[in-house]
Write a structure and sequence with these properties.
By secondary structure, the chain is an alpha/beta fold. It contains 20 helices and 13 strands. The radius of gyration is 23 Å and the shape is globular.
């Protein structure tokens, strides 16, 4: 196997024997084959679209398949095999229906022609279609960077689609982008242009999901979320899909079972539509990587609506449920909706919860969030005033992912050491490294403003663009904002590409730079966008906020 799509790539190069995440070589090969199958489907879809044909089935297929191949999403080999077979059948149906004379490349790449006789033949082919089949390291780097960006965008498109929202331009690009990774005529500059175009579509995908979420559930508002527990039996919901949560809340109403969020589902509390459920009890635990301990002590059923799922311990595997793109062989999977209007059936979780103990308390207190763009605009007056008086000297965007690497304590230390005239803007599960720190507010404005999930990084971009407008600045980089982004999986890749598209420069990306950036591709990003890694907390404080000593200590020293 060879996989280097996430931040935990072994030795910062790639997982070759088994994934640091736990992925086996067999599963890794099948997920590679799933992406390969999607490329064939996208080749067909790109050609058909150019001829004016609708490719709805292919659109859904590619979005779902890319999402399934994201880190810590689908661990289920039989399900992966079934999805590969579906893709081959779909590709062949399109070919039979329209014929080969629809402007397909000639000769057709293997991705669009392979037809294994059975599962054994598929498994035999799988190791030969992975990342390393592109031998030129720079082309490989750019092809994979594009694919990972597309995976992130696919995740956001799927959530939006679940709420009845879509964008054909992004889907068209997804097919075209995937097809481009099979085109040996494309050189570094060509692929780089497509990678940067991916960032534009990333902005659209995040805006689409923002609109889907807010038009369905209302605009997030400032909310205090309980992090302790109640006495009722309960269900824990993790992942990013708000519609799954909403349906579970509806179905468990008056059942005596409480619902808690975990990880990336925390921001659901900020939406007005979810506040009307008295049994929506709070948030339990932290970011994804602590789930083995937290799922254990939660005691009740757990629903994973998206990544990140880590291989479960036997002690709670019988109460772990997956749905959507996530799957784990041996854990029950709640079936998808056949039609958009259908409702998923979560009754099995509710029935099981009633038989189980209430969650064991692991912490008490509360956290505050809900600072998405609409809410922040309501606070524009006090925030602008604080900027003008110097009470807020700098914002630091600390969005992205959390992870289990020890070196990620850097982010807690960095947040702790930030001067007291700085404000953290966050989104994604990265926030769990510092959202429980006792940072004193500035004129009533919290020091950590949480916009929501990783896709709500869009909100941070909207806020930055609005600030630029009201402060009368020409360039987004003239704002008093530094970017210290933490990444782990491929949604962070589309967020990064989206920020680059918006013209943001000098982003610090950590805790390590992606293994999939070849030295030459990394150099292009450094030269063009000023992307850099992280250093020590002390050095980065000087680089990013221009002051190493907490401001309050400075002020005390001056006063003395
Ligand atoms: Fe390794 Fe990450 Fe790939 Fe898992 S997803 S195999 S940890 S690079
Ligand atoms: Fe986290 Fe997986 Fe990336 Fe949505 S839940 S941010 S890591």
């Amino acid at each position: 196997m060879f996989c280097y799509q996430c931040q935990e790539a072994a030795k910062g190069e790639g997982c070759r024997i088994r994934g640091t995440c736990g992925k086996t070589p067999e599963l890794a090969a099948l997920l590679d084959l799933l992406v390969f199958t999607s490329k064939g489907v996208s080749l067909m879809a790109t050609a058909l679209r150019r001829q004016g044909f609708s490719t709805k089935e292919a659109d859904i297929y590619v979005v779902d398949s890319l999402f399934m191949s994201i880190t810590n999403a689908n661990w289920d080999e039989p399900r992966t095999l079934a999805q590969i077979h579906r893709g081959i059948a779909l590709r062949e149906t399109m070919l039979a229906r329209h014929g080969a004379d629809v402007g397909l490349p000639s000769p057709l790449p293997l991705a669009a022609t392979f037809k294994p006789a059975d599962d054994a033949a598929l498994r035999a082919l799988a190791p030969a279609v992975g990342v390393l089949t592109t031998t030129d390291v720079d082309l490989r780097s750019l092809r994979e960077l594009l694919i990972y960006g597309l995976k992130g965008a696919a995740a956001y498109l799927e959530h939006a689609r679940n709420l009845g929202h879509g964008n054909d331009e992004v889907v068209e690009f997804m097919h075209r982008g995937l097809a481009a990774t099979t085109d040996d005529a494309l050189l570094t500059q060509d692929l780089l242009a497509i990678v940067l175009e991916c960032g534009r579509h990333g902005v659209t995908a995040m805006a689409l999901l923002d609109n889907a979420n807010t038009s369905t559930y209302g605009n997030p508002e400032i909310t205090t979320v309980n992090i302790g527990v109640r006495k009722n039996p309960a269900i824990l919901v993790s992942g990013h899909d708000l519609r799954d949560l909403h349906e579970l809340l509806e179905q468990s109403r008056d059942s005596g079972v409480d619902i808690y969020t975990h990880g990336e589902m925390l921001p659901a509390h900020y939406y007005p539509a979810f506040k009307k459920f008295p049994h929506f009890a709070g948030n339990y635990g932290n970011a994804w990587w602590l789930q083995d301990k937290e799922f254990e002590s939660f005691n009740g059923p757990i629903l994973l609506t998206t990544n990140c799922l880590v291989p479960p311990r036997a002690s709670y595997a019988d109460r772990l449920y997956t749905t959507g793109a996530v799957g784990y062989d041996g854990c029950p999977h709640i079936p998808e909706r056949a039609q958009l209007a259908d409702i998923k059936d979560f009754s099995v979780l509710i029935a099981q919860a009633k038989q189980l103990a209430a969650p064991t308390e692991i912490e008490t207190g509360s956290i505050t969030g809900g600072f998405a763009h609409h809410q922040v605009m309501q606070l524009a007056g006090p925030i602008l005033e604080a900027i003008k008086t110097g009470a807020i000297r700098k914002f630091v965007v600390m969005a992205g992912c959390d992870g289990r690497m020890k070196s990620r304590s850097y982010y807690t230390d960095f947040a702790t050491e930030l001067p007291s005239d700085t404000v953290i803007l966050t989104a994604g599960c990265a926030k769990f490294r510092y959202n429980k720190l006792p940072l004193a507010p500035i004129n009533g404005i919290p020091r950590v403003l949480d916009a929501g999930q990783c896709n709500d990084s869009y909100s941070l971009a909207v806020i930055a663009l609005k600030l630029k407008e009201v402060l009368g600045l020409k360039d987004i980089n003239d704002l008093p904002i530094a970017y210290n982004i933490a990444w782990y999986e491929q949604k962070a890749v589309i967020v990064l590409l989206a920020l680059l598209h918006l013209g943001v420069k000098n982003i610090h990306l950590g805790p390590t730079l992606p293994a999939f950036l070849s030295p030459n591709v990394a150099q292009i990003l450094i030269d063009t966008f000023g992307i850099t890694g992280i250093d020590t907390v002390e050095n980065d404080l000087v680089t990013m906020v221009g002051r190493a000593t907490p401001a309050n200590e400075c002020d005390v020293a001056l006063a003395n």
